[in-house]
Amino acid sequence: MRSPDGLEAILLVGGQGTRLRPLTLSTPKPLLPTAGVPFLAHQLAKARAYGVRRVVFATSYRASMFGEAFGDGSGFGLEIVYMTEDTPLGTGGAIRNAARALTCPPDAPVLVLNGDILSGHDIAEQVDLHVSRGAAVTLHLTEVDDPSRFGCVPTDDDGRVSAFLEKTPNPVTNRINAGCYVFQRSVIDAIPEGQVVSVERETFPGLIAAGELVLGYADTSYWLDVGTPAAFVQGSADLVLGKLASPALPGPVGECLLLDGAVVSPEAKVTCGTVVGPRARVEAGASVRGSVLSEGCHVASGATVVNSVVGVGARVASGAVLREVVVGDGAHIGPGNELTSGMRVWPGVNLPECAVRFSSDV
Ligand code: GDD
Ligand code: MG
What we know:
Blueprint: E1 7-12, E2 33-34, E3 37-38, H1 39-49, E4 52-59, H2 64-70, E5 79-84, H3 90-99, E6 109-114, E7 117-119, H4 123-133, E8 137-143, E9 151-152, E10 165-166, E11 175-184, H5 185-189, H6 199-209, E12 214-218, E13 223-225, H7 229-241, E14 256-258, E15 263-264, E16 269-271, E17 274-276, E18 281-282, E19 287-289, E20 292-293, E21 298-299, E22 304-306, E23 309-310, E24 315-316, E25 321-323, E26 326-327, E27 332-333, E28 338-339, E29 344-345, E30 350-351
Parallel strand pairs: 1-4, 1-6, 4-5, 8-12, 14-17, 15-18, 16-19, 17-20, 18-21, 19-22, 20-23, 21-24, 22-25, 23-26, 24-27, 25-28, 26-29, 27-30
Antiparallel strand pairs: 2-3, 6-11, 7-13, 8-11, 9-10
Bound molecules: guanosine-5'-diphosphate-alpha-D-mannose (GDD) and magnesium ion.
Residues 12-15, 58-60, 85, 88-91, 94, 114-117, 150-151, 166, 176-177, 179, 200, 225, 227 line the site of guanosine-5'-diphosphate-alpha-D-mannose.
């Protein structure tokens, strides 16, 4: 059975994306260019392919930018409507607020998606499981190495969720909430309106305690939360390399994706899923691996950029080395600087030429 055409979805996109600063100072996380398109384009194209036709965006942080990017949704074959919280209502409050724009009846399933997830799972199978078992909510579950950073979700042999432990220091299983839910609409309508509510800390534990059927749909397909810089560059590279198929990828799968007006010297090495943004330039002798080069940025001769983001119009000078670094828009990394793991350069900052070098063998 395939999911019904005409399924409605709520997309949670109101978070501030603090872990991705400085990239999210000017652009909300779900709109960051990812493999050539706003991140959400990948989620929307996938939802469309699984029968979703109407999406309610639950916005808060920089809300107006979503309408500017996606309009009425017709470009995606969708109808998109926007529901904005003046102050963030948390995940549950946001879902309840967005539900005011749903058109489906109380007994219909509604898809709810965190707006920062890349996932290869079969949404139709998840919806079908939910409908056939008559669940109140069905959660997509995946396995990760460090479940303490997520919602830990133990289930019984029948797939019934027995507890929901958000960001617990003592996880009881590696199986976690993957951030894609099927709710009965009536269950959403029962969330208190106009209040700050967390689905993870209040709604799910409350439903389980009340004996409602909360199901887990577990699978092992590709899954990534792009909420940190390292995960964001990985997600972008994985899309370019084709590790996760996306109908929204604006070019063929390969070692790199060159966008409009990008100029890469034939003597440069650009590999491992790097995106070279519109009008960005990479000079001879530069090596760029698994990175995101934003619009109009410049990587000079002999520079090395690995698993990093170079912001809009930023410049990386000759011989500079970046590994797992975020360079903000318009910043300048002077010649010879070597920046590593997790360093972030704020927009517009100018790092002058590095005059002193440290060497481990001195
Ligand atoms: N509209 C609105 N209002 N959206 C919100 C709000 C809010 O107040 N707070 C968060 N969101 C949105 C974010 O924009 C994001 O799309 C989603 O809700 C989840 O928020 P994150 O900040 O990314 O949460 P997380 O990654 O720490 O944890 C969540 O996702 C994990 C899976 O990636 C939880 O749901 C965990 O249980 C889960 O394992
Ligand atoms: Mg997240």
